[in-house]
Amino acid sequence: MVKKSTKIYIVGAGISGLVAAKTLEAQGYCPVLLETTDAAGGRVKTDIANGVFFDHGFQVLLSAYPQAQKHLNYTNLKLNRFKPGALIFKEGKTQRIGDPLRDISALFPTIFSSIGSLSDKIKIFTLTQTLKNKSIDEIFASAEISTLNYLKNYGFSDRIIENFFRPFFTGIFLEEELRTPSRMFEFVFKMFGEGYATLPENGIGAISEQLANQLKNSEIKFGHRVSKISSNKIHLENGEVLQSDAILVTTPITIETGEHDLNNLGWKSCDNLYFTVEKKTFDEGIIGLVADKDAFTNNLYYPFDQTVSGDPILSVTIVKNHTLNEKDLVETVSSELLKHCKIATKSFLRKYTIKQALPDIDNLKKELSPNKIKVSENVYVAGDYVLNGSLNAAMASGESAAIKLMEEL
Ligand SMILES: Cc1cc2nc3c(=O)[nH]c(=O)nc-3n(C[C@H](O)[C@H](O)[C@H](O)COP(=O)(O)OP(=O)(O)OC[C@H]3O[C@@H](n4cnc5c(N)ncnc54)[C@H](O)[C@@H]3O)c2cc1C
Hints:
The protein is about 35% helix and about 25% strand.
């Protein structure tokens, strides 16, 4: 088969679709990406307004992700690093927990904080070491229990779970009960231990931009919504039908009918509010957590080098399910920030509500077995939802689906 004229369509130009295209291009193929929106990157997006970068939801690139190391150029992304650990706000007190081995300034605050017992702090250290020696393959082959039970079984006290693990991992898993499978906890904890949480200088969307810019022989057709696929046909919502030799789908479809169905899957959501504040109350590069179960505010940070008319910007994430309208949410969060964190907001800038932020799935995987990647004749699947909700998984799934597709061609 002549590679250049082989008609390969990729449904979705999110991170998995972009990596799939990059992998296909590397072997001489010229895929076409069909993307329903007007931009590449899917859930990894940043708006720019008056020189300020607004990420669509707070997310971080963990520099230790093996797939990110393979597909991204960190130097060109100009990554800003967060300090390991967090600043915890609880009952009017502010305490710091950190990794003294990588940031010596965290040594005393960590030892003397009342966030957990000394035994808890030693256990954090031993868990970090244990997971350093456990491979990612082993992690995803381990039995799955809830993260909460995992932490309890490991012997962590309720105090450190409530003061640190629950707020920290609520922000990562986008759910408050810590019911997310322990495989994800181990994977994320390992990644935090082996690298840094980072953000590109131009916001998280710079990752999408970098991947899209690497494509030289692919075409992205924006505003093309796929409604149904069969073995060699793609039906677009506008009635057009495209003939194809192979289809790589990066968004949930019902295999039997070939119909696109995003709602078939459970999703976790969040709100992200941006404010200006009078002054920074803690350093950039530190993630603040509100460890009060009733608070709407989960985490907050000052985006690196971002100001509006000289006022610093604060990004706040809300994970709690709620029915508040924008005005009430902004008021509630502003008063929480004052009460728990002693932060006075000056003006509200914008809100992003991301209803389908992370897939709510279990039986999390590092990779799909090849016979699960090909779901029917000429149809291959990728996307974080087939593995686990992370940038690493999106990239891994896109790459392996492209490889499987090429093998079959
Ligand atoms: C708020 C938030 C916080 C997160 N935090 C982190 C984090 O800290 N670290 C981390 O590693 N990951 C995080 N993630 C997860 C990470 O962003 C995702 O795992 C990853 O972006 C998924 O990429 P994807 O290509 O699998 O899916 P998507 O990004 O969903 O891409 C699918 C693409 O398909 C398009 N599409 C959908 N339906 C159709 C159709 N019918 N026809 C054509 N095109 C279609 C969509 O528009 C989209 O562009 C977070 C995500 C969010 C939203």
